[in-house]
Amino acid sequence: MRPILELASTGAIARRSATDAMIKQHRLTQEEIDHRIPSGGSTIANRTGWAMTFLTKAGLIAKVAPRTYQATEAGKKFLSEHAGPITDADLRKIPGYREAW
Question: Could you say which residues of the chain have pLDDT below 70?
Fold first, then answer.
């Protein structure tokens, strides 16, 4: 989730642009890019979408236009205060996160 939040803190993102950025950042192979989940969708797009959902529920990113998200001030502050990976346990500590589900 950290790479998605970092990306959203630099400007507006969409699921597609975030997925493309994750492919580049993690230097995924064509085989990894082509991998599908059982429903037939792209695994990387699915994981990117879920990361964006978790970050939205935590209030760290917010919709700024249709299908477009950006880091909130809380998201930028979270990044500056938390080093390393962002886990679900980290998000559960944010007031309102559990209620958002």
Answer: none
pTM of the model: 0.92
pLDDT single digits (tens) 24-39: 999 999 999 999 999 9
The 8-class DSSP code of residue 94 comes to: S
CB 77 within 8 A of CB 20: no
With contact defined as beta carbons under 8 Å apart, do 8 and 61 qualify?
A: yes
Report the pLDDT value the prediction gives residue 30, as an integer from 0 to 100.
96
Place of tokens 């700024």: 64
What angle separates helix 43-57 from helix 15-25, to the nearest 10 degrees?
Answer: 120
Sequence-distant (≥ 6) Cβ neighbours of residue 1 within 8 angstroms: 51, 54, 55, 85, 86, 87, 91
CA-wise closest residue to 46 among 36, 55, 54: 36
- In which residue are the tokens 């995924």 written? 28
CB atoms within 10 A of CB 17: 16
